[in-house]
Amino acid sequence: MTHSKLPGMLLTGCILFLLHACSLLQADLPPEEAAGRKIFEDADSATAAVTGIYEGIAATTNFFAGGGSAYGGIYGDELVYTGQQAALQEFGNSTLSSGNALLETNFWNNSYYFIYRANACIEGLAASETLPASLRGQLMGEAKFLRALLYFYLVHFFGEVPLITSTDAATNERMGRSPVSAVKATITADLKDAQDLLTPAYPTAERARINKWSATALLARHYLYEKEWALAKQEATAVINSGLYRLMPLDSVFLITSKEAILQLQPVNKRHHTMDGFMFIPLGNTRPSFALTPSLINTFEPGDRRKTSWIDVKTVNGVRYYYPFKYKKRPDADTNFVLTEYTSLLRLAELYLLRAECNITLGALPAAISDIDVVRARAGLPVIAHTHPDIEATKLMQVLQHERRTEYFAELGHRWLDLKRTGMANLVMEPLKQGWKSTGELWPIPYAQIALNPSLVQNDGYY
Known about the structure:
Elements: H1 6-21, H2 31-37, H3 43-59, H4 67-75, E1 79-81, H5 86-92, H6 101-127, H7 133-158, H8 169-172, H9 180-197, H10 212-225, H11 229-240, E2 261-265, H12 275-280, E3 290-292, H13 294-299, H14 305-309, E4 311-316, E5 319-324, E6 343-347, H15 348-362, H16 365-378, H17 384-387, H18 393-407, H19 414-421, H20 425-432, H21 447-452
Antiparallel strand pairs: 1-3, 2-6, 4-5
Helix pairs in contact: 1-2, 1-3, 1-6, 3-6, 3-7, 6-7, 7-9, 9-10, 10-11, 10-15, 11-15, 15-16, 15-18, 16-18
């Protein structure tokens, strides 16, 4: 997306998206009238408008399709970028600037583009008088979840951001940054609405669209980040006890058929499989563009099967490069290829570790040990209930954070966000990266957006 005003540009793009998503519209209708009057009167076109958001997210680099895993990994302590692209190097060497084109396009503009799509769907569905109530509720729940997911990542990477919840360009034209508390309140409200609107059943045979438990899982994470321990535990328990999910063998976690998956992202370009696989798996005899750091490699305990199942190594010119291998497929030229993997956005292991963290904080150590041991046992590690049954809370929290690091490495930015929310970011980053400053905990607001909208104020430490 070029350097233009967000509201006007994105509103136009939103209308074009809605028109593109629906082949049933009459060509001679004005775009605004068609989008407002027709799309959400028909079940097929309304569904296409909402599912088009998923497709758009899957087709672009952003927090969910490769970007959070790779860019978040090199920004923190998980990955090293081995390539020569200057904009990517900025993410890895603590020189990220407000003029970084990847920052603006992949994370800021793309996020707001999809937020506008979600807003358009929410408004259109609310005004619809012809859709069946059950379908309208399902689609509304999906749109609200997607908006909450986008704002969750925006607020945790950028801090205060414009809280745009409508398609009214006049309202949004000069909108400044909203308080973090307001953004988080909207996330809570959207996810609770989604819970109420959605059912436990997935809309399709796969897990690539949102159900009630998807909203519940993200709400549990949101409550965890807000230190609402009892609420986070309650939501996590609801998902775990739903009976729909179970931990899978390590090599099956990221397959389309995974029963661990709570929500997956279906690739648009089927030959690319997942963007994580595309970005991480080296091509031919080349070195991987993103290599795991020695500190991450060395943090795995002896016998941890995640190190052998989810990490691979490539030797190039005598140098060994370890790289993430959770996803086993990269673009496939075989005309007879079979798509086997979807990107995992939410999975059950997170809920066990999330609930364990809540239980440690709430003083329920045996329950926390039990949940941590579920994940450790899957990795082939000794369970704490046998090795350290009387472990005290501080040590158990260290074990928990270690498990989060080894379970969720190079996956959707989990590690970087964990460092931030636990107050460990500066302690880890200062000795690791020359020139690191505490202001780096937030990414800069893209300069082009500030130049076009004087109401936007830059984060400290950037210009």
